[in-house]
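Changelog-adjacent note: as of this version, every example in the card shows the full chain rather than a window. The one below runs 365 residues end to end.
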Amino acid sequence: MQRSTIYLLSFLFLFTSTVYAERIKDLTSIYGVRSNQLVGYGLVVGLDGSGDQSAPFTEQSMKNMLRQLGISLPPGTKMPLKNVAAVSLSAELPPFAKPGQKIDVTVSSIANAKSLRGGTLLMSPLKGADRKVYALAQGNLIVGGLGISADDGSKITINIPSVGRIPDGATVERMVANPFAQGDFITLNLHQADFTTAHRLADIINETFGKGTAQEMDAISVRVRAPLKVSQRVSFVSVLENLQVLPAEAPAKVIVNSRTGTVVIGQNVRVSPAAVSHGNLIVTITNTPQVSQPDALSEGETVVTPQSDIAVEKEDNKMFLFNPGVSLDEIVKSINKVGVGPGDLVAILEALKSVGALKAELIVI
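Full-length structure tokens:
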């Protein structure tokens, strides 16, 4: 007997109504104090035959590099590429980074190299969106992936061997200007827009530093008057970012991931009076082998033929009732009593939203 069953896993994160104060540094970021993305192109050498097999731009890059080093090749020379790989480089330049500081670099193959394990990145520039060079990268790669293949074509791969990392592999060469030390104000931007939180943020700053120090601009931004002197401004922000603020409760939302079956229900979700009944059909297919034995001296062959039995079972789930203003805890308890799975839960939530009983925003991702 062979039965196929599909299991969907659902995680319901239940939030209590208790709200704790958080530091301003955990709720906001300062306008202009941000990291910048860098990107580059380079060559990884020293590979053990796992490099690019046939990539025209890799061969061209090798010839250009040798030409810059004073080595000229005869026209038509074919470059061996098994130990070389063309790669793209990516890094993040943190705010206030100064020339001479080190940053990490991620190295990714862009051709058909099988693995970058054991390779060395040659000196390569990292450029910003303005095409200016902000860092130089070079060093030995750390590759967490592993790929092994045999002559018969079988292979095994662990993680991704075509991507590596160089810790402190790039040296910063240029600073990025930011407006932190400019003007009379600094602007705090909330990570999540909320008018109530922005108002409370301005209130706690004014209570600490004096009335008129902070002013909320919208649901995200709060403008704060700051000292003009840079050293005093740093000290001011140090005190400012450690103030405690009570954030507002999140809006009522239900998040459904249709691919994984994950359902997350917020604490402020409410349901109007509604009666729900949900049932499923379960189809079971059973394969039983049957042996067909020929008669004696008939010169026939014994044949095994499968016989399939199909059974349909209907689940008669009971109807359950949502009372007025039912809370999240009661919603989960009611649905769990019926014993529905993630797919059924999504169907129930969508039906409640359609009839107007679900007092929350239903988001399907």
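Structural remarks: Confidence is low (pLDDT under 50) at residues 1-17.
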